Amino acid sequence: MGARSFLKYLRSAGVITAFVDESTTQEPELLISFCQWMRLQRGTCDATLYNYSRSIRDLLICLGDEPEMFDAAGLRHFVLEKSQKCGWAAAKTCITALRMFLRYLIAEGMCAAGLDAAIPTLAHWRLTSLPRYLQPDEVERIIISYDTNTAVGLRNHAILLLLARLALRAGDIIQLKLRDIDWKQAEIQVSGKGKRFTRLPMTQEVGNALVAYLVKGRPPTDSKALFVRAHAPFRSFASHCAISVMVRDAMRRAGVTCRSLGAAHLLRHSTATSMLRQGMSLQDIAGVLRHQSLETTQIYAKVDTAALKQIVQPWPEVLPC
C-alpha cells in the first residue's frame, strides 16, 4: 500500500512516467466488498478490518476467489494449518475474521448456508496464565528513553505516557483526534472497543507532553489525527502495530527485555498491576481499563502475591506409611 501511494505521488509530480499496472496489486474484489459491508452493516472500524484482511487475503490465495467452491474440509484445513504458525491470539483473530467473512458470503448468497459453522474453535482456557508486566522502574526508563529535543522524541514520549499512565490500548492511540482533547476540563475522550466513548482525566504530566508535541513536534498537516507520522505524507498511523513497534524500540533503548509480542499492551498490564499493588480495588481498576465485565479484570488478582499469602491454606502433610 505504501509503495503504491509513493509511486502515485511520483507520477503526479512528474518525476516518473512509467505506468505501473495497479491491477496486480489491488485488493481482491471480495475483500473490498466485505470491508464495505462490515462498515455499513456493523460499523466496524478500519483497524479491525485491517486485522481481518490479512487472514481473508490468505484464505482467498489458498482456496481461490470462487466462494461457491468453498467446502468444510478446505476451511478446516486452512484454519488448522494457519493456527500452527502463530500464537493463540493471532489464531483467534483469524477464526473471527473467517467467520465474519463467511457470514457475509452467506448473506449475499455466494456460498452455502451454515458453512460458517465449519470454522473450528481452538481450545483455550481463561485465567490459566499470569499477565505479563514490567516493574515500575522499568516503565520509567522506557518513558524517558527518547530524546525530547527531537520531533519524533516528543511524539513518542507523549504516546508512552498515554500508554503507561492512562493504560490506553495501541488502537486507542491511533484513533485519537485533536478534538478529543478537552483542555478546559483536562480530559481525554477515548473511543475504545465497540466505539464506546469514555472520558479520562488528563494529568499535568500527560498534558505537558501533549502540548510540547503539538507546539514543537507535530508537522503542519490537515490530518485530524492527534499523532501523525514524522515523515511525509503526514497522516495517522496505518495500524496499531506501529505503536507496538515504537514501544518495542523504546524498551530496547531502555535496556528492558520485551517479554511479549504486544509491547504496547505490556505497558497496560504494568499499569494495572501497579494500581493493584498500591491498594486500588479491582472495580476501580476495571473502570480505568474500561472493562465492561469485572471478570476481565480478575486476572490481575493473581499477581497480588502479598494478598494471596494471607488467604493461602497450608498443604496437608502426608502421613508416613
How much β-strand is present in the residues? under 5%
Distance N to C terminus:
72 Å
Structural class by SSE content? mainly alpha
The CATH level-2 architecture of the largest domain is identified as Orthogonal Bundle
Shape: globular
Oligomeric composition of the shown chains: single chain
Give the strand line-up of the largest sheet.
1-2-3
- What top-tier CATH class of the largest domain fits best? Mainly Alpha
The major pleated sheet works out as:
3 strands, antiparallel
> Any low-confidence stretches, pLDDT <50, length ≥5?
20-24
CATH topology of the largest domain: hpI Integrase, Chain A
CATH superfamily of the largest domain: Intergrase catalytic core
How many domains in all?
2
What is the average per-residue confidence, as pLDDT, rounded to a whole number? Answer: 84
Number of strands: 3
List keywords for this structure.
three-stranded antiparallel beta sheet; 14 helices; mainly alpha; 2 domains; DNA polymerase, domain 1; hpI Integrase, Chain A; 4% strand; 321 residues
Overview of the structural elements:
- This protein folds into 2 domains: about 120 residues, DNA polymerase, domain 1; about 170 residues, hpI Integrase, Chain A, CATH 1.10.443.10.
- Helix content is about 50%, strand content about 5%.
- The chain is built from 14 helices and 3 strands.
- It has a 3-stranded antiparallel β-sheet, with no helix packed on it.
- Helix 3 packs across helix 5.
- The relative contact order is 0.09.
